[in-house]
Amino acid sequence: MVSVTERRLSKLLDTLNRIIHKIGKGEIHVSARFLASIIGQIISMQGAVGPVVRLRTRSMYESILYKASENANVLCNSRSLDEIIFWKENIEKMNGRELHIVEQYSSVVYTDASGKGYGGYLVKAIDEEIMGSWNDGEKLKSSTWRELEAVYRVLQSISMSLKGQTVKWHTDNQNVVNIIKKGSKKSDLQNITIKIAMM
Q1: Are 117 and 134 in contact (CB under 8 A)?
Q2: What b-and-e string marks burial along 92-118, b requiring 16 or more CB atoms within 10 Å of the CB?
Q3: What are 117-143's pLDDT values in tens digits?
Q4: Where is the RNase H type-1 domain (predicted)?
Q5: What is the per-residue pLDDT for 38?
């Protein structure tokens, strides 16, 4: 098992508490260097925490992306604060990952979406099929949104069947694969991705 040392966890939690305290006092601008150090600490823990580190540091990273210098102040917006609070509340619970290479999957899932609806298929001892249709507003969303939302809705429908399983998930949209791994600049896609990660 790979895990982050107690010293590094303690350092991160102290840093997170400091920024939360500053924001609580109304100081919504923080130095880019300070925010970058938080991101760096979290990213350095990816081996022990998993790929969620990229997904749940995206808003903080966007805050410092266009800074004038490392000493410049940047706005710590509500999405960045949500990420900071997420790490404060979850880093200790998420610390520790088994090192293993998955060669066999106990379940395989296929999802697809069209302009009218979505579907998913769980291949297991007893095959499960899930289908749904989009409402008028959802039909107007991008194909990437529909494919990502299809993954979420199918996962939500079959999550109990997947408990304790090693799952291989197939989608025909490579953007969805990348968004699930890294997150998205588009808030509607990012919100779906976070819901998927939290399941």
Answers
A1: yes
A2: eebbeeeeeeeeeeebebebbbeeeeb
A3: 999 988 875 667 899 999 999 999 999
A4: 103-199
A5: 95
Q: Please, what's the b/e burial string for 57-80 (b: 16 or more CB within 10 A of its CB; e: otherwise)?
A: bbbbbebbeebeeeeebbebeebb
CA angle 153, 159, 165 (to 5 degrees): 135
Distance CA 113, CA 175 (A): 13
DSSP 8-state assignment for residue 77: -
pLDDT exceeds 80 at position 102: no
Q: Is the Cβ–Cβ distance between 99 and 160 less than 8 Å?
A: no
pTM equals: 0.75
